[in-house]
Amino acid sequence: MKAVAPLAAEVSTLADELDKDENDRIDTALLNEVFQKRVDMLITEDKKLRRKAERLGLSHKVLSINALIAFVTAENPNLVEYRALAVKKRLMGEIDVNNEFFDSLREAYTGFNDWFAKKCNDEAYLCQDDTGRILGFLYLKTEDRCENYSDIAPSFTPKKRLKVGTFKVDATGFRLGERFIKIIFDNAVERKVDEIYVTLFENREDLATLSNLLTRWGFLHFGIKFSTGESVLVKEISLYNPLLSAKENFPNLLYNKQKFILPIYPQYHTSLLPDSILNTENEVDFLAKEPQRYALQKVYISWGQERNINPGDIVLFYRTGDAGTSKKYSSVLTTIAIVDEIQTGFNSRNKEDFLCHCQNRSVFSLDELNSFWDNHRYNLMILKFIYIKSLVHRPILGFLWDKNIVPAPNGPRPFTRISNDQFEMILNEAQTDLSKFWR
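Above: the chain sequence. Below: its structure as tokens.
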């Protein structure tokens, strides 16, 4: 830095409160350069300095070394990494192929163990419970336009494809299958493929659930693989099909849709949106196996007046600030999602219908859901949404005020409508690129 910026008023106030010596004042001067937007990012192992940054709403710009590594590898196109939840990348050579989890695959595929051994240097996704028991496994392979598909009929046309090579999930009640579906879609987007395909024995009872899951998310029956007799299911990634639902088209999105901001309280935010965990939150607190954390389709409950919301509309989740903090800096936009389904009119339906729609997809307890029904049944709306992506940087409420997206001193109300221009301002501030999703 060739010049030192004068302390901003907010920084000066913090310095008066916390600075005790010359080292503290130097640290504050460094933070001020970030606050004044003359520096994009500050990397430090100084915990006190990071706590100061948190007070100033700069947690997303003042990072530890580990947080920096997580940030710069977040969009690694080889295999997308996941910070929260118990699904991790592992070298296949580190996984015990003789584990009973793989028995059904050995039974279905001759030479499975030999194939597994040859892939020892490849990475796969593995989910284990707290005892080490394997609950899910996913292996993905990118294939180029020159791949030989002579044993598939009808013939594949030349395209870049993502093959779901091996995919198995045990029934757990945690919607773990949806978690793996999201991982498949994320990798397809990052690798810029045209199609995803999977081969499986649809007549096997243990694979019927998997086949139904894939079908619900837009995989269509294409043909047969002669060498094994498996069915071939295909999902188109490069085109949006207007004959299919928002869920069946996902992760393909249409840009020319309504866009809204949805506020969510801190105590619910990361349980519902674990991939959007804040740097100030402890990852360990969110590793519990709760169904809504794994579900790709989730539930948001509202009794606001806005009702003009449609499948395919885009929503930005806004985490309100923690108690005792300045909402201008601690309230942040964190997450982009798409509306999948809207349920209203519960005044003419029974409570069981309402609870059924929320089951395993909502962060609320049964007592809370019963309270919502008792107090708001005539205005209740269930919004089922699909998580798209976490924002790389988290725009603060002060940014929304500065850009006249939300009038100061208030925060956004439920379903605050924003224009395309405002949406782009937010994406630019968040340094988040959605271009791979638009069709």
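The longest strand covers residues 332-343.
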